[in-house]
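[Discussion] Sanity-checking designs against the backbone

I'm trying to build intuition for which residues belong where. Below is a structure token string of 87 positions. I'd appreciate it if someone posts a full sequence so I can compare it with mine line by line.
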């Protein structure tokens, strides 16, 4: 693979930092990610006044949030270059 230009490297670094910030926010202990449903199936659901339900998702596995860490890993590989070579 061809080496990244300085401008490309800077853009990828900037994108990676934005992704790190987003991941840090989403995975904070005081932030919950919920999915909207139509009826409660367990006592863990929150039922809104309009009848819609919300239930919390597991952040670390079983949701599309796992793609965030995977994407960050791909960008990190581009930035770090192949093993054994100086970037």
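Best answer:
Here's mine. Compare freely.
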């Amino acid at each position: 693979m061809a080496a990244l230009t300085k401008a490309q490297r800077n853009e990828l670094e900037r994108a990676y930092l934005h992704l790190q910030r987003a991941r840090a926010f989403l995975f904070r202990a005081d932030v919950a990610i919920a999915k909207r449903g139509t009826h409660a199936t367990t006592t863990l659901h929150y039922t809104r006044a309009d009848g819609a339900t919300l239930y919390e998702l597991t952040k670390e596995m079983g949701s599309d949030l796992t793609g965030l860490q995977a994407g960050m890993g791909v960008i990190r590989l581009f930035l770090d270059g192949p093993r054994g070579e100086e970037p």
